[in-house]
Amino acid sequence: MKQKQQRQLNNVYLITGAVGFIGYFLSKKLLDQGLQVIGFDNINDYYDPQLKIDRLNQLKEYDNFVFVEGDLAEKVEIGAVFETYQPAIVVHLAAQAGVRYSLENPDAYIQSNIVGFFNILEACKKYPVNHLIYASSSSVYGSNTKVPFEETDRVDHPVSLYAATKKSNELMAHTYSHLYNIPATGLRFFTVYGPMGRPDMAYYSFLDKYFNGEAIKIYNNGDFANDLYRDFTFIDDIIRGIEKLILCPSDDLIPHRVFNIGNNKPVKLMEFIAALEKALGKSLNENVSFIKEYEPIKPGDVPATYASTNKLEDIVDFKPSTSITDGLQVFTDWYVHYYNKLQETSLRS
Fold first, then answer.
1. Which of 164, 201, 337, 346 has its CA 20 to 30 A from that of 155?
2. DSSP characters over 69-123
3. What is the mean pLDDT of residues 116-136?
4. List 13, 24, 162, 193, catalytic entry
5. Is-catalytic flag, 162?
6. What's the pLDDT tens digit per position in 285-314?
7. Closest by Cα among 42, 23, 168 to 91
């Protein structure tokens, strides 16, 4: 029998992974609207913590922001946050990210993505919330060859531990939503990019390598006729989609739903790289060409990611509007400014 819950009436938003890429932009968006945001993050060193600290310092400028540094895997810590702040909306974005890194450090994925998410669900059960939104991933589609990916597709064959943990999250959320009447929404993200993004992502590392004089590795065997496709989604579009879901009446989302959130316009990897070269060239006012090395596709990677976003569009009118050209230009302009690359280029010349 489902348990009836007395839900929160306040306007407190708990964002886990608040100083991560998506978490930072979402927190800032809500703070700009005058809403109370509790940010939770462990500021780990999976990538350069300085970027996370810089994001955090910007969020700390808001009087309506409270930051809690903690570990998802510590159940008592999570419970204390819920008890103290009584969040009405929880957006759970914290997780150990990365497909390839899951081959090197699987323990981190179990602790953060499985144990950590279990602790979030338990807290939502004990301290009822109006809506739990959590990050899943397009990786759950595994080696699915049917495109575009639809939420009704089978996702029973993940090809990485990271994907397996995200599929597990969806199952766990469905169960808790069913048993305890928790309005829960999972979002399958499709390659989110933009300024202040994750340095472990390929598009970001390509710029790092360019300025270090190193070759970029392209995992498509140099097979341009059968190039990899990716559904790149600009961060502003992602944040608008999440914001629309937050505003969606919770009764429309019970007991549990999963949505793709992507661009619905897949781009060939080589076309993306060409667009990135062009954007960086504009940022630097010079011609840019990456040194390229072609290698076989990596274990855990998939040939194509392509989101059908019809379901989310029907619910909240989600329509990404940022082109690859415009999005990459914003990113490269930020990167050049953040790392003072324009000045370095001037000195070299």
1. 201
2. E--TT-HHHHHHHHHHH--SEEEE------STHHHH-HHHHIIIIIIHHHHHHHH
3. 97
4. 162
5. yes
6. 999 999 999 988 776 666 777 899 999 999
7. 23
Residue linked to tokens 């990050």:
135
The label of the residue with tokens 């976003």 reads: 309
pLDDT digits (tens, 9 = 90+) for 193-245: 999 999 999 999 999 999 999 999 998 877 776 677 888 999 999 999 999 99
Specify the pairing of strand 233-234 against strand 12-16: unpaired
The closest of 50, 34, 67, 25 to 195, measured between CA atoms, is 25
Integer Cα distance of 307 and 321 in angstroms: 15
The set of residues, in sequence order, having a beta carbon less than 8 Å from that of 310 and lying 6+ positions away, is 150
Quick count: other Cβ atoms within 10 Å of Cβ 11? 15
- Neighbouring CB atoms inside 10 A of 272's CB total 23
**Alpha-carbon Rg of the chain, whole angstroms?**
20
- Distance of CA 5 to CAs 14, 113, 128, 266, 290, Å? 19, 26, 6, 41, 56
Picking from 183, 181, 203, 185, the residue whose alpha carbon sits closest to that of residue 193 is 203
Domains of the chain with bracketed CATH: 12-193+232-261 (3.40.50.720), 202-230+265-342 (3.90.25.10)
